[in-house]
Amino acid sequence: MSAPALLELDGVDVRYGRVAAVRRLTLSVSEGELVGLIGPNGAGKSTTLHAIVGLLPTSAGEIRLRGESLRGRSPESVARAGVALVPEGRRIFGGFSVEENLRLGLAAARRNGAATRLGEVYELFPTLAEFRARQAGALSGGQQQQLAIGRALMADPALLLLDEPSLGLAPALVDVVFETLAAIRERGVTVLLVEQRAQRTVSFADRTYVLANGELRLTLTQADAADTDTMISAYLA
Amino acid sequence: MSLLAVVDAQTLVDAVGLGAVYALMAVGIGLVFGVLRLVNFAYGQLVMAGAYTLAFTSSWPLGARLLACFVVVLALTRALEWAVFRPLRTASPAVMLVTTFAVAFLLQSIARILDVRDGTIGEAAASIGGLRQVVSVGGVDVRRVTLVAIAVAAVALGLLALLLARTTLGLHMRAAAADFQTARLLGVRANVVITFAVFLSGVLAAIVAIILTIQAPLVTPGFALQETIVVLVGVVVGGIDRLWTATLGGFSIGFATGVINGALPTEHTVFLPSAVFALVVLVLILRPAGLFARPRAAVVERV
Question: So where are chain B's domains?
C-alpha cells in the first residue's frame, strides 16, 4: 500500500466470554480514505468498532493508529488520540441543548479553535445552527443523526467511525446521511463506515470489507457495486 | 390550610433552615450518585469527621478550626475515592451499597476509639461566633445559625448550579451523569469527572458539618447518622436520577420534618419520625418514580 495506514487492525480477536465475536481480523484504513465495513447482523461490525475505541478489550492482535498501539487504552484516551465514533442509535444527550451536545464533542479536541469548529459544523448542518438553543431530544431522527455526526466532527478527528448512521431513518433521510458523508469526505476526513446497506456502501466507499461470523470474507471496490449482492451471497453461502 | 393555622412563622423559618441543610446533604449524595451510580451511605460519617475535627480543635482560632474541618473531610473523601469508589466502579449497586455501609461503620468505630480516650463518649464543640444566639427578625425569634444555614445553602447551591450550567467541567459532569459511556467516547475523562464530583461532595459535607455542629455542639460517633438516613429517603422520594429532584427531595423532607415537629404538641414529638415516614410511604405509593419525576410518556424514541 502506497499511502501510510492511519488505522491498522492486525489479527484482532474479540471475545464475549467463550464466544469469539471477531476472529483474526486484519484491515487498514489509509489517510483520506473512506472505507466501508458491511455484513449481516451479528457479523462483528459493531464489535470491531467498539474494540477500536476501547469499549471492548481485544484478546489477541494489535490495533494501531499512525503506528501507535491503541490496545488497553480507555475510550477517552482513544478519543483524545483522534478517533471519533458516531455510535449506533446516535446517543445524543436529549436533555441538553443542541449547542451543548456539540460543545461536548470538544472534549477530545487536541487543539483550540472551538468557535471556528462550531462555525464549520453549523455550515455543514444549517438546521443545527437554526435549532442551536433547542433541546436535542426535540429534534427529528434525521436531525439527531446530523447532531451526532456534527458532535464527532467538533473534535477535529483524524479518523471518523460511523456505526450504521442510516439505521432507522426514512429513505429520504438516508440520502441526506450519505450526502453528508460525501461532504465530510470532501474535507479530507478519513472515514470507516459500518453499514447494513451493502450495495450503497460499496458504490460509495473507496473500498469495502465484508465481514461474516467475525471473519473478513471479501474486499470489494466500487467496480463491484453492481454485483455486490451476488458476490456477497456467493461468498457467504 | 389547617396546617398553617398550627404552624407559626418561627416554625416555618426553622423548617426552611432544616430543609436547607438536608438539601446540601442531598446534593453531596446526588453528585456522587450521578457519576458513579453509587449511594454513599458513609456520607454522614464524613460530616461526623468534620464535626469531631471542630470539637477536637475547640481551643484553636476560628479560621484554623474551619480550615482543619475542610482539610480533614476532603482528605477523607479523597481517601474514600481511591480506596473504595474507584475500585468498585464496575461492581454491582448492591456491592457498592454494602461496601459504603461497611465504610460507615468502620469510620464510626474509629471515631469511637478516638473519642473515648478521655474516658467519656461525646465531645463538645466550642461555639462559633455566637451563631447559636437568637435574633429577632420582624418579630420572629430565629437562631442566627438558621439564617446562616439558609444563606450558605442558597449560595452553595447557586454556585453549583452555575458551575454545572456554565463551565466545561460542569457540562462534562452532567454528560457523565446522563450517559457515562457516551461521554467517555467523546473524550470526557472519567477520572477527572469522578474526582471533581467526589471533591464537591466533600466540600458540602464540610459545610454541613460546620452548620450541624453549631446547632448541636455535642459530637458523638452517631453524629449526622440519622440525618443521613432521612436525607437518603428524601433523595429517593424526590428522584435520585436527577440532581435537582434529589436536592428538592432532600429539602422537602427537611422542611416537612420541621413543620411536623412544630405542629406536634411538645409532649408528642416522639411521634415525629413515624409521622415523617408515614408521609414518605404515602408519597412513594402515589408517585413511585419520585415526587418530582417527569411523566414517563414524555420519553419518546425518535426515528
Answer: 10-224
